[in-house]
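sorry for the late reply, my laptop died twice this morning and i had to redo everyting from scratch. anyway the thing you sent over, i finally got around to it. pasting the sequence first so we're on the same page, its 77 residues, then the predicted structure underneath. double check i copied it right bc i was rushing
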Amino acid sequence: MPVNVGTIDQYVRMVAGLALVAFAFQDGLPIQGWHWAGLIGLVLLVTAFFRSCPLYTALGLSSCEARNGSATFRRSE
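ok and here's the structure:
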């Protein structure tokens, strides 16, 4: 798996993923009809953990820092 998720993108995915999972499982039981929020949260957490996003790979994108130190959202080659 290619690494295509940068540090800032990784932290945003972790925070958003945890928030969605927490929202979907309030009070220990899943909220009826909000299971999809928990699944999206899990996907965000997994992509943050592995630092690889299949959608970024399919679109040829990367949010990793460039070698010169600037963090830009760019197309990978």
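The chain has one domain: 7-75.
thats about all i looked at so far, will dig more tmrw
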